[in-house]
Amino acid sequence: MKQAAHDGTAAAAKRKYTPYQRRLLVFLSVATFFEGYDFVALVQALPRIVAEMGLQETDTGLMVSLINIGAILSFFIVYLADKHGRRPLLMVTIVGYTVCSLLTGLAGSAWAFIVVQLLARVFLLGELAVSMVYAAEEFPSDRRGRVIGHLQVAATLGTIFCAGMTPLLLKSDLGWRAIYFVGAVPLILIAFARRNLRETERFKAQQSSAGANGYRELLQLIKGPYRRRVLVVASVWALTYMCTNSLITFWNLHAINSLGMTYEAVSKCIMMAALGATPLLFLVGRLLETGRRRAALLTYGMLFAGAYGCYNLSGVPLLTLSLTVSVFAVAGVVPILNAYTVELFPTELRASAYAWCNSLLGRLGFVLSPLLVGWAASRFGYGPAVTATIAFPAIALVLILRNLKETAGFSLEQTSQLDPVEERAVA
């Protein structure tokens, strides 16, 4: 009965989305749209900021790493979603990011830029994490992969929008600051849609039976039976971020400084790559439905090829092709890892598990990557520095294939159950 109530029977799975599920999907898609927008906003603005503030390679890497500390601090916001609910935390993160995006456009120094962008990352990645929990808990098991894939497509559309608008915005009197002013406007509108968002049924059911989670439940993940899963999933996230976070972030600096490309040419390449990758990303949801491990094998393979091409080939056609593959792979690995992260843990621990695996432990790779790449680039150049990071997701893929079970098509109750090996390890 519980499985039928939460995931639906086979007959229920064949029904179309309910009106609320359709509204929810649109709401979450618009919210995640700006995760892609904000990521490319930094990528696009970085050369102008570096030039305006006279930063060197090591300074640039340090600045990006400090900003990315916000990703780790989002751990506390995501944890609160298991304590106070998904709905209030999603609303807080949307409003918080909107304010920080506006303040970024007003930043008058490198340190002011770092502080407000750090806070923006706290709210933005907290919003992304809670959105993924919504996707897992409010949609049936046979559609979770597709919904998570749709959200990643929405983020990629944000990438395309930002890449297309940036050349025009950079020509305005506001320069790079206009990118952040424009990025804040739609989220202000989204904040008014809060009246249409409900708390998830799974969270309400869990709260009525177990009450609010506290720090004991948070620590239970790393001390209890799910400790091994947390460490494996967190390691996969961290190793993947060691490559993906620097792959796109520093490509424009590599293209401008090492290949002699113009700002306009770089923006055009990014926009064309995002446009080319978007149709492929629509297939990620369907690929996830055929199997998480199969999707990982294909997507990580494309990540290796794209990363190598971006930093070792020359010529606009080859670079655009490599960047297209990279944009797809960088975006494509996210729904795969999101699916595993929200599916391998029970409802009462799901948001906390996401906080541990991605927001805290996994984001260590997110923070360290630009710092290490910036240091290496000052000595060897961006090409060798970023190419070397391909080794990290290769290790992550091995961990997935050897340690994470298949979750496609199973209910959340089934996917969160410990397997015999894990039970013996606990015993």
Q: Any overview of this molecule?
A:
The chain is mostly helical. It has one domain (18-194, 214-421): MFS general substrate transporter like domains (Growth Hormone, Chain: A), CATH 1.20.1250.20. Helices cover 82% and strands 0% of the residues. It has 20 helices and no strands. Helix 4 runs antiparallel to helix 16 (350-380) and helix 7 (144-170) packs across helix 15 (316-343). It is globular, with a radius of gyration of 21 Å. The protein starts with a helix and ends with a helix. Residues 1-14 have low confidence and may be disordered. This is MFS transporter. One of its GO terms (molecular function) is carboxylic acid transmembrane transporter activity. The chain crosses the membrane at residues 24-42, 62-81, 88-108, 114-135, 147-168, 174-193, 230-253, 265-288, 295-314, 320-341, 353-376, 382-401.
